Amino acid sequence: MLSGYGRYFEKGFVRHKETHEHLAVYGQKPEVMVISCCDSRVTPEGIFHAGPGELFVLRNVANLVPPYEETEGQHGTSAALEYAVTALKVQHVVVMGHAKCGGVQAFRENANAPALKGDFIGRWIKLLEPAAIAMACMPVDRIDDPQLAMEYAGVRQSLKNLHTFSFVEDAVTKGELSLHGAWFDIGSGELRVMDPHTEKFETAVSGTPTE
Amino acid sequence: MLSGYGRYFEKGFVRHKETHEHLAVYGQKPEVMVISCCDSRVTPEGIFHAGPGELFVLRNVANLVPPYEETEGQHGTSAALEYAVTALKVQHVVVMGHAKCGGVQAFRENANAPALKGDFIGRWIKLLEPAAIAMACMPVDRIDDPQLAMEYAGVRQSLKNLHTFSFVEDAVTKGELSLHGAWFDIGSGELRVMDPHTEKFETAVSGTPTE
Amino acid sequence: MLSGYGRYFEKGFVRHKETHEHLAVYGQKPEVMVISCCDSRVTPEGIFHAGPGELFVLRNVANLVPPYEETEGQHGTSAALEYAVTALKVQHVVVMGHAKCGGVQAFRENANAPALKGDFIGRWIKLLEPAAIAMACMPVDRIDDPQLAMEYAGVRQSLKNLHTFSFVEDAVTKGELSLHGAWFDIGSGELRVMDPHTEKFETAVSGTPTE
Amino acid sequence: MLSGYGRYFEKGFVRHKETHEHLAVYGQKPEVMVISCCDSRVTPEGIFHAGPGELFVLRNVANLVPPYEETEGQHGTSAALEYAVTALKVQHVVVMGHAKCGGVQAFRENANAPALKGDFIGRWIKLLEPAAIAMACMPVDRIDDPQLAMEYAGVRQSLKNLHTFSFVEDAVTKGELSLHGAWFDIGSGELRVMDPHTEKFETAVSGTPTE
């Protein structure tokens, strides 16, 4: 890893040297928050070709936003969201799902199991339950691949949950904040964006990569 | 953002096309989990020059690991940690702090305030309280810059908290997992690594960037 | 002990006999409340050369004032404070820390321990946590001796907590009550007084004892 | 007060200079804990003619020991008791009441009032309720002065409460700790000691002061 850092320091950092110095002095002012998965195959900055200071990135398992909760305890995702919207005043929040999501897969495999394995991961992906229920009750589109359908449903549910935070809802109502759904295919590199009206996911860039 | 994606798809993705296809079929098998901040100026994949499939990345405000807790509720960070260590069996967990951390700054500014603003961010950064107490009680090194001292203390505390998870402790004891502390200077691009024995942070690569 | 009492009765009491008789009839009217440690090496009446009726003395472990709390339960320190300020109308409250404080030491040693020993002492000295946090976040002065730094921080925090009681705050605002911080060196007999503006502790009487 | 300290430093401290230096280096090792009132007319070190390092002194309103309680919150008196018995291993605990006790008086005056004044003092002296009940039900001795009777009853109740702490009970059973009741007359300087069997208070030193 340190040799990787060496390469970065000699090449990558130099490219953004002045930006880094400026950001260190004046602080970050990103316009976009991306909520993405921890998955090692999904790097928001890479996918959006973003330089330092451009994306405020929250990454958790299965890119989930819990609903607003008044319970005690440390709500890491809600804290990051609150900071991004109220302190940094980002203009966009993008929830980005992805193919082959291990969190979604674990949820699907354990849906009928008596108890979910592990203390935390089982409880965390229970956040997908309303997504599964919504999908079962009001299928937006019939997709043959149940894993993909659930990945989409997870993004839709997280977008729905975003609206349960009053500071998000206020900013959206005032036109200061937009919410977006997206999905990344780790195998083909394809990015799909959710249409806010139909809630369907459409390919963002149709061309094939030039090799 | 979509034009950025276009550039990525035409250049970045092509470079890793086979890797992506392989990863999509065989799944991710990252050896390293990085716990980093949401800050737009800190991109683990960039700093470590890591390609797809290499880093399992959790990002939350102020790169915090809470201690093991048996309380109800969705513990997003603990869930990601559990997934990385027990399911993906990563060999390294790196907690990476950084300069000018807004979460640490908010904690410091609010330490004496009657009440912390916001529902979530205030509670979340309270995870830094044991870090502050540990620093006050057993100062590892006297640093004139209190913001930097607190950033270091936060990384040390998160490493300490990692040990409260039995699955982490077990893997460390068996020699299957190593824990690391690091700190990134967003202004100069310098990476500092924590010595596990002295708990001091030392510059990892001393050379200046070749311009 | 009874022989000690005999000596007191024959010498000490006689000296203050009339004062005692007067105080028994007309009641106490002390102008000063001292909040000091139970430590056997710190006697407020001795240090301030005070006779009967002069000092209203609260002594608890580590001379701590908890913040105002609405919870149930018997708050002994708050009760004594309330009695002194609202019933006796003292004009000064002095929080006096001291060197080698066992309560502070226990706090420092246990800051990183998994669990504090004992049912009560561990919980009581947790009142020092905000002191440690304040010190970590906004160090007033850098002191090489962490025990001393924490002793000072404890006094500062107790003074801060005094302001959380409305009856204290009211009396201070009306100019009827002053709050003071002090620290006693049990080894050298030196008394240090906190400057209310800089919050630094300065030697009160600089001369050496005449032997 | 500072001039009083000056006098102390030049005279009082010098007398105990070597003791102070020794205590600073080797720590305190008092054999006796005194639980006394905050009252400005009652100074345990004075009454027992005790020098530095001899008495571990807790002072609260009305010299009360609450019963063992498992509730949350900071129990200052219990904490000091625990520290004295388990850490310092004192051999004696003396609960010393006194004449004209304002806490006892407030309790008596408010016993029939609908609500006790103040947030804290009222709740604190409610600890005397079992003392009053015990006195009403099982009067040890009939005393014409109800204030004095209640002051005695308070000491008896505190001694009873001491036994509810398992660490006290254990030490007493092993013969390592003795509990004592005492009462000081602020007007005459008389000290009365409670007979452990009859629970009556008897004058400790009968002679009149030599003037």
Write the layout of secondary structure elements.
Four copies of one chain form a homotetramer.
Chain A lengths: L1 H14 L1 H10 L5 E6 L6 H4 L7 E6 L15 H12 L4 E7 L3 H9 L10 H5 L3 H9 L8 H17 L3 H8 L4 E7 L6 E4 L6 E3 L8
Parallel strand pairs in A: 1-2, 1-3, 3-4
Antiparallel strand pairs in A: 4-5, 5-6
Helix pairs in contact in A: 7-8
Explain what you see.
- The structure is a homotetramer of 211-residue chains.
- The first copy, chain A, is globular and about 50 Å long.
- In chain A, 42% of the residues lie in helices and 16% in strands.
- Chain A is built from nine helices and six strands.
- The first copy, chain A, has 211 residues and is α/β, with parallel strands linked by helices.
- Chain A has a six-stranded mixed β-sheet, with helices on one face.
- The model of chain A has no long low-confidence stretch (mean pLDDT 86).
- Chain A folds into two domains: 1-27, no CATH class; 31-203, 3-Layer(aba) Sandwich (Beta-carbonic Anhydrase, Chain A).
- The first copy, chain A, starts with a helix and ends in an 8-residue tail after the last strand.
- In chain A, α7 (129-137) packs across α8 (146-162).
- Chain A has helices at residues 2-15, 17-26, 44-47, 76-87, 102-110, 121-125, 129-137, 146-162, 166-173, and strands spanning 32-37, 55-60, 92-98, 178-184, 191-194, 201-203.
- The interface between B and C is medium-sized, with 23 and 23 residues.
